[in-house]
Amino acid sequence: MGASAVWRGTELENAYADILGGRMNGGFNDHGKDIVLADDEIPAVQVKSSLHFALEFLKESLKRRQFIPLCVGEPASRHEILTSLREYGAWVGYDIPNRGEVLDGIVRVKELCGA
């Protein structure tokens, strides 16, 4: 992974942490929990900058049978993100093509993981 991809990921994690009122959990070896929230229903989220990286994460979730709520792409308002996380287990930014289909796919992975 190039330095710009790491920077982009860190920048995006910071943005989500600020919007959601959470704290960053550290990067590599964070066990998929990029942002820790003070929320019993959604204790943590994984942040991915692109659909490509989100799909890799979801494949690993299926292997482990462990679903962690996921934010993909650019953030929106706190209300929009939290509503989507509660309803689908994910927020998919408006910058992600076919976001409705992506959300449907994430819901399916969530179900397969037993979450």
Structural commentary:
- The protein is of the alpha/beta class and 115 residues long.
- It has one domain (3-112).
- Helix content is 50%, strand content 13%.
- The protein has helices spanning 3-20, 51-64, 78-88, 99-112; strands at residues 23-24, 35-36, 44-48, 70-72, 90-92.
- Strands 1-2-3-4-5 form a 5-stranded mixed β-sheet, with helices on both faces.
- Strand 3 (44-48), helix 2 and strand 4 form a beta-alpha-beta unit.
- The chain is globular and about 30 Å long.
Give the structure's gist in a few sentences.
This protein has 115 residues and is an alpha/beta fold. The protein has helices spanning 3-20, 51-64, 78-88, 99-112; strands spanning 23-24, 35-36, 44-48, 70-72, 90-92. Strand 3, helix 2 (51-64) and strand 4 form a beta-alpha-beta unit.
List keywords for this structure.
about 120 residues; alpha/beta; 5-stranded mixed β-sheet; 4 helices
Q: N- to C-terminal separation?
A: 30 Å
Largest sheet: 5 strands, mixed
How much of the polypeptide forms β-strand, as a percent range? 5-15%
Total count of helical runs of at least 4 residues = 4
Which percent bin holds the helix content?
40-55%
Shape: globular
Task: Please write out the topology.
Elements (H helix, E strand, L loop, with lengths): L2 H18 L2 E2 L10 E2 L7 E5 L2 H14 L5 E3 L5 H11 L1 E3 L6 H14 L3
Parallel strand pairs: 3-4, 4-5
Antiparallel strand pairs: 1-2, 2-3
Helix pairs in contact: 2-4
